[in-house]
Amino acid sequence: MNKQLYMILLLFVISIPLRAQDEPVPSEIQLKWQKLETTAFIHFTVNTFTGKEWGDGTESPEIFNPVNFDAGKMIKVLKETGFKMAIITAKHHDGFCLWPTAYTDHSVKSSPWKNGKGDMVKEIEQACREYGIGFGFYLSPWDQNHPTYGTSAYNAFYKNQLRELLTNYGDVAEVWFDGAKDKKAIDMEYDFDGYWDLVRELQPGAVMFSDVGPDVRWVGNEKGIAGETMWSTIDVKPENAPGKMSPEYLNVGDPNGKLWIPTETDVSIRPGWFYHEEEDDKVRSAQNLVDLYYTSVGRNSVLLLNIPPNKEGLFAEQDVANLYEYRSILDETFRNNLAKAGADKTLTDGHLESYTTLHTNKPFVVKLKKKATFNRIALQENIADGQKNEEALLEYWDGTAWTVLSELTTIGYKRLLRVPLTTTDKIRITVKKSKSPVQLAELGLYKASSRE
Ligand code: FUL
């Protein structure tokens, strides 16, 4: 064998395992989380009673009295409208705790609600178990009530609270951190590494959210809009602690990123995160919620939709009505996959593990048994093996020629496309650019509900 050929062969052999190892893939808990698709946030605290969005820690627990609070009623609505997990604000920036923590009196313990004997986090958790959805909590590091805030003693206090929530409420599906703080008054140094170690130790099945992970990242805005190009991979350097990475970068990610940290799209059904009566006529419509589904789940993200309880401790009527209508529209749109009549079974069986491998510039044709009329396309990659597609072309056969349906970039876990109403018995997809061969796991053709 000549030396040149030997070198080429050697390079080829050593590059295979290296390439496979280099490509980031989701952990088991990240993959499970991504499949939830739609999750719910419940923002509730003293703000609901003061009308504020950010309390300042001086609120009296006396004002907290949601007389008709009913976790079961609210979680039932979430379950029936397709949400697979609920995350409750156990503590927001005002420091008021919705559970009777042993580490401060600034909690439900000092409120008239259930004569100070209630535990709202427990009631939400129990209702989640009853209806079979995941339970998660938000424990704001920014706490404007606790006297130690701003000193290292606060980190110890915060970890004590975290430990209570991680040990007394069964399996936790997600822990939500954020980096918010009032930098002008006190620039507290949060011990994120310490917080994260504690969650891993006590709840290895929980994913952790912050601006930059470690498991789930922020999408870069609170409007419900993930980037059209959306990589689940990014690079996090030590200097990019929560709060320091640019929203633009988070919104799109990085095809060459070394870490798998997918986005969660958090957005509220109302202008504020907390319930305010004056926003009763500003609730997102069912159609607007459906749009959010397309711009989050349909762009390789997970939707985290906030529905805030009112002063009574219940979801407001309009919010509930719009949620049911939103779900019924989505169900109608995605009930019938028209590609089932014809497409390879691996592409319509609902499993990521069965897929068709697509190579660059090799068109893959899907023939239908009879003509179908559709205006929505769903694509999925087998992300268990990473995210690969960078550019692709979708075309349909118009009887005489291949005509462009869509030129798209990333697919990832799920990509939903709204295209003009099209009738055909043949479509084809051509990968134009990819990191490695694309594992196309699902292909769906749907006709949208007229209510969309
Ligand atoms: C932010 C908070 O400052 C908002 O009040 C809200 O909780 C949002 C989800 O996260 O960081």
List keywords for this structure.
six-stranded antiparallel beta sheet, Jelly Rolls, single chain, 452 residues, binds beta-L-fucopyranose, alpha/beta, TIM Barrel
Short account of what is shown:
The protein is an alpha/beta fold.
Strand order within the widest beta sheet:
5-4-3-2-1-10-9-6
Query: How many domains is the backbone divided into?
Result: 2
Largest sheet: 8 strands, parallel
The overall pLDDT, averaged over residues, is 93
What is the count of β-strands?
A: 16
Q: What is the H level of CATH, i.e. the homologous superfamily of the largest domain?
A: Glycosidases
Poorly predicted regions are: 5-20
Number of helices: 10
Ends distance: 65 Å
Alpha-beta content class? alpha/beta
Known CATH architecture of the largest domain: Alpha-Beta Barrel
Task: Provide the β-strand percentage band.
Answer: 15-25%
Order of helices and strands: HHEHHEHEHEHEEEHEEHEHEEEEEE
Query: What is the CATH third-level topology name of the largest domain?
Result: TIM Barrel
Walk me through what this model shows.
This protein has 452 residues and is an alpha/beta fold. It folds into 2 domains: 314 residues, TIM Barrel; 109 residues, Jelly Rolls (Sandwich), CATH 2.60.120.260. The protein is 25% helix and 24% strand. It has 10 helices and 16 strands. Helix 4 packs parallel to helix 5, helix 6 packs parallel to helix 7 and helix 9 packs across helix 10. The radius of gyration is 24 Å and the shape is globular. The chain starts with a helix and ends in a 6-residue tail after the last strand. The structure holds beta-L-fucopyranose.
